[in-house]
Every structure is written in C-alpha cells, then in structure tokens.
Amino acid sequence: MANFIDRRLNAKGKSTVNRQRFIERYKKQIKKAVSDAVTRRSVTDIDKGEKISIPTRDISEPLFRQGQGGKRNRVHPGNDQFNRGDQIQRPRGGGQGGAGQGDASDSGEGNDDFVFNISKDEYLELLFEDLELPNLQNNRLNKLVEYQTYRAGFTNDGVPANINIVRSLRSSLARRIAMSASKKRALRELEAELEQLQDMPGSKAEKILALKEQIEQLKKQIANVPFIDTFDLRYNNYAKREKPSSQAVMFCLMDVSGSMDQATKDIAKRFYILLYLFLTRSYKNLEVVYIRHHTQAKEVDEHEFFYSQETGGTIVSSALKLMNEIQQARYPENEWNIYAAQASDGDNWSDDSPHCHDLLAKYILPKVRYFSYIEITHRAHQTLWDQYQDLQQQFDNIAVQHIREVEDIYPVFRELFKKQAV
C-alpha cells in the first residue's frame, strides 16, 4: 500500500482538515461551550463566532509508565555520575515521576485551558446540528429548497482528507509513462547495440565505454522521474445542490403585553432569533410571518417584531385569529406546510383561554404541521398553560415547553426542533 506524505509548505487553509478533526474529536466540549455562549450573548451578537475554552484535562494525551518491580536495563543519556554496576538511590518522596503540571498547585503554578476561535459558520453548524422542521411533507415542489452535499467529480486542488488515491496513482502512472517511454526505448536500443559490440571481436573499447556512459545517463534520467508529483494529485470534489422540497411558512406569535417585562421579552427575542437563524440557514425561500399582540394583534416586519416598544393588555386569541385569517388568505393548507411558534408569559384573560383552546382545536391544529408554545415565567402556570396542555393530550402536532431562565432557551429550542427518528 502506498503512503502519501505531504511535504508542501503550509499554505492558506492547509490546516482545515486538522481543524475539523479536532472539532469532531472534542465536539461534546465544544457544543457545551456553544450552548453556554447562546445564553451569555446579547441579542445582536447571537450569530457571531465564538472563542472556545477546553479544560486541559480533557485534551491531555495518555501517558504510559513502567510499573514497580522486575529487572530491566536502562540507558541514561548524559550520565556523568554512575558507572556500570553502581546502585542508584530511590528518588525522594516515594512517588513516581510524571510529566506535566497539574491543573492547580500550592505554589501558584498550573495549566491554562486550551482556547481557540471558531468561525460563524462553524458556530451555527454546531448550534443547529441534528435539527429540522418536524412533519415536513411534500406538497408543491416549487418553493422551499434544502441543500444536499453530493460528489461532483474530481479536482486538482483540495485538502488532504479528500485525496483520491486511485485517481492520483493513475495520473502518476500516465505521467511517468509519458516522461520515460522515449528514454526507455532509447535505453533498449543502446543496450542491444552494446551487446552486439561486445560480441564482435576487435570492437573499439572507446565506443563501448561511450555507450555505457550513455546507458548510465539514461538510467539516471529514468530514475529521476518522481513517483508522485503535485500535478498528479486528484481530490474528491464535493458541492451543494438545491434539493427541492415542499413550500413552507412559519408563523411567529409573540406576546408584547404589559405583563411581559423587559427580561421576559429579551428571552422571547432570543428564542425567535435562534429560530430565525435556524430557518434561514437550513431552508431557502421559507416564508416567515411575524405577529405581535397585546389586546390586538398585528402583522409586522422583522425589524418591528424584534425592536418595537408597543405594549398593552393581553388577549392571546387575537393573535390566533389573525394567524388563521392570514393562513386562509395566503397559505392554503393543501399547498403549504404550515408551522407556528408562540411565546408568552401565560398571562391572559381567564375567559379568553378557553377561546384560544377552541381556535386551536377547530381551525389551526388540523391545518398546521407543528405548533410550538413556550411559556416564559417564574410564576405558577395559569389557565392558558392548562388549555395548551389539554391540547397536547389530544393532538400530536403541538409541543408545550416552559422556560424559566435564559439558560433554558437553547435546550428547549433543541427539544422542540430535534430531528425525528425515521
């Protein structure tokens, strides 16, 4: 089996394959750091890269030591104290020697954590790994597009991990044949001529010597043809193509009533920003409808949804009514995959919560692929939570989750949109 050793100078992006191997090896620690970063960041910085810190104990390599006892010979380089047969005293302290420092010590010395930066794309890839829109089904294959990686032939440039051994060896063989075929033909002719001269009596020694020099020179030229060259290397080429899928729409319903204080609104915004990043990164041309509500509901654009300061009382059914009206007018259920994500603190007029139950049960849940509701509160759950819990027992396309702190956002998000087992 041929072994390829890449001795080229380290070019830009050359360490990409090692970087990916490192991320794959320590994915558990990196994903934990990424999920922690989501809760620490401000709303405007949630989609940027991240500086990852991994404890040294997690990346330390195994160390092999010889156990006590037994008879063995050792070579101590630089020995200027002992001769053969001398007895070496046992080290003071009675413990085995080891390499490296501990994480902490009473002398103030220790090892720092290993810190490195991941890019925005790597950050988002880890953030939304193994997530999908649940229950997505084929309707009209003309709008929503997913990206699928596929083999796209071969290329002359690439990273070592994608090298194609067979293609590279085939190219190397073709180059060596082309570069040495004429020389080998000339070598055979000179060897035949030399054999004839050596068999003939009275041949001139000078001519035989000249032929031998030519033969040696041709052999050196043939031997100098490299077995593998940079021009021979071929790499597997991968590209992304659009994978047609059904068209889909996501309704985002956010409570902005007076009971939603600034901290609660901030948690809701973080959740919706995560949802927006997930949808725009994973799906192309998926439409998003933003609805804000207090006593009245209103369809707004992306900027107003996240930054408007409007507030008021609470009538949750107003948002569900508006969603149903928009869906009927613009997104027929036989042509669209309909999704909805609602965030609220659970505070609602007591007589409006049963109305929300009826709207969902009769008009919305029979049409949507998936309806997710998150309640952001430290208080005890009220009537709205009970109504949604009851719907969860009746329908399998609604999920109800509770968020108390900022740290709960990402785990709840992953639970709502985790990839379903086939």
Automatic annotation (TrEMBL):
<dbReference type="Pfam" id="PF04285">
    <property type="entry name" value="DUF444"/>
</dbReference>
<comment type="similarity">
    <text>Belongs to the UPF0229 family.</text>
</comment>
<protein>
    <recommendedName>
        <fullName>UPF0229 protein L2749_02305</fullName>
    </recommendedName>
</protein>
<dbReference type="InterPro" id="IPR006698">
    <property type="entry name" value="UPF0229"/>
</dbReference>
<feature type="region of interest" description="Disordered">
    <location>
        <begin position="57"/>
        <end position="112"/>
    </location>
</feature>
<feature type="compositionally biased region" description="Gly residues">
    <location>
        <begin position="92"/>
        <end position="101"/>
    </location>
</feature>
